[in-house]
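Running log. JK asked me to keep both predictions on one page so they can be read side by side. First protein, sequence followed by its tokens:
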Amino acid sequence: MAEIIGVTFKSGGKVYYFDPGKGKYEKGVGVVVETARGTEYATVVIPRTEMPDEKISSPLKPVIRAATPRDEEAHRKSIERRAGAFKTVREKIEKHGLDMKLIDCEFAFDGSKAVFYYSAPQRVDFRELVKDLSSTFHMRIELRQVGIRDEIKLIGGLAPCGRECCCSSCMPAFKKVSIKMAKNQGLSLNPQKISGLCGRLMCCLEYENDYYADACKRMPKMGSEVLSPDGKGTVVNIDMLKMTVRVRIEDKQKDTVTFNDYPVEKLKFHRPAKEKDADVSEDDDTSDN
């Protein structure tokens, strides 16, 4: 077991573990840490706790110090600089006639560099743009191209459900999502109904997939024949939350058709061997701190 604290470098971002040393850092406080990209400001989201060694990547880097008032002021100023820098860079992009869309920008805590995130339909030669930005900001410039899912994570927005997009509000890292998850839940495979703002499969399809995947194994297929307490019938609807099945039972002698709901455990049916089902996933490369 190792003692750790968890921090994030941006709201809703991925959680990283650091060695707290002898310090006691409460949730929500600012700290200064050393990363591969240099000294950075971070916010504690997991206070000091113990974690199994196999769940962390050793060796852990130590926390340099709790953020001082001067650190907090420097961090605040770097955030305030973004709006002006964003406008300047967009003007520079138009000036150089580049086919790229500026998404976000951030400044290193120590003021040594600025990072600008952009999307583009194809490869962009931005060498002249970098030279122009370096002379404007008087610091090292990095331009990073991001995919469509990362673009939505950075800029945010309202999802089809009416809530803020999961990727930009409560999901630190993208998870693998596949069309099979939509099939397991009995959702319409209409792309407009199962796609998020990014045009890719909605991340929330993964949330309850374990339950639906298990429920699917225990339920008969739509349109299949089952033996119910009232005789043989055809499955016309299934409810995987209540674990009930609606069966259409036709009595040819009486020339009647009835529809009855049964708990799945009261039905007898044969489910074919595991089917080969296309499991097309959307697992983009992501860029995070």
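And the second, directly underneath as requested:
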Amino acid sequence: MIDFELYRIFKIVADEENLTKASEVLHISQPVITKHIKNLENELNVQLFKRSKYGMILNENGKKLYLQIDGSIDILSKSEDIFNIHKQINLGVHVNMPSKIYNSAISKFYESHQNNIINIHQLTAENMFSMLEKQKIDLAFSKKYSGELYNQKEIKFIKIGELHDVFIVNANSKYLNKKLSKKDLRNTTIYTLKKFSSAYENLIKELEYNKNDTINVDNVNYTAMLELLKVKDIITVITKEYVEEKLANNELCVLDVGFSLSNAEFGLYYNVNNNFKELKDFIEILKSNCKI
């Protein structure tokens, strides 16, 4: 008997050319993927990939197999969806988004849709948009990002509310006792998220950087910023709602700089090609029940 799952995993590894990326798409561990690929190779008695530190590239045998199954796997996947689409909703949530914002909406959805299951996948922005485009997730809950990250013809954004990007320092920071001007801030290295994030864009706008200025900003991920705040006296720009617990416990403090950064929109991203009743219902409930 042909094991459809082995061929589906083979196709995704071939598409991604990388075990880490394939693991994120499939939501299974790299060792499990490796085992499945080995099982398929043993079943066919051939090697299918060239393995190296740079990734997994199809060899000649793999290319032949891929050409044979490519369309068939997509057709079989869609056949599965006909029966599963009304049972499960795959919700992508940005890794930094606090669950308390959307938990009440999920509870509300289950009150009227007891037979449905919401699978939550915590994703980075890049993976989130990739999975939306490939329809691996039905919906994504996140802050609004630059349109450069995704296909705007296929993926649309629905605003639900606003979050607040603020200057954050540790509780013992020397900056808490200083009145800092915008010039002072431009002369101080500020740590914030990647260049496509609202935190970065709002910071550059408010500090009035010109096109030819050297931008004194370090882009690091959220986890790295929290670690740096523990060991160094630095100024960061973080979404306030992400660190509310640490602010309440006086581990971190909001730095008053005499002006406010623009609010950051948050809401839902969806693929216009993905359209079914339960998804529409869930979107309406999220729009009405998400709370800051």
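Observation for JK regarding the second prediction: Residues 60-84 form the longest helix (25 residues).
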